[in-house]
Predict the 3D structure of the following.
Amino acid sequence: MSEPQPKKIAIDIDSTLHDYWPIFSRIAKRRFGIELAYESQRDWAVNLLRPEQSAVVIEESHSDENVLGAVPYENSVDAVNRWAKAGHWIHITSHRSVDAYDASARWLAQEGYVYDDLYCSYDKITRCVELGVDLLIDDSPVNIAKALEVGITPATLVHPWNRDICEEEGVLCAADWMGLSALLDQRLMPRATAGS
């Protein structure tokens, strides 16, 4: 069996590298008095908020203070850095305004992530295709479905809003970063170093 060749890996930030839901739900409660229970969020759209309310919450959630205060999921830094060290090209891609770029870059540096490229925009899949990305790690069922359509392998942490798409053939899913990295290491890492 041949050793894995270097890949281009695109990785989302919110609900992928860190737990975004507590930030989002805290702001929704404070700004609009609306309780957003994580387990009840069965759809990508937040149906309890009007679109203009969601936009306000998203904008505030990407303020410098909120971005820099995010806590990475356990094992996410180690996994990303292990892949980078193995020669894979790491593209951090976030559905954030370009205004959040600097804070996002500072957060990635603050937490110790090693990566090659950071992109904040609303056309994630288009950019992944342009870059020739092989693997997309993202929580959005919309992005996961689009990745499948264009031949990019999708992987995700399981959340209430993306459980259904985890049933699709070709979608790699795990409950946490330990499980996700173990699953992906089989494809990305030389056998001697996988999981170490």
Summary: Strands lie at 8-11, 89-94, 117-120, 135-137, 153-157, 172-174. The first strand starts at residue 8 and ends at 11. The mean pLDDT is 93.
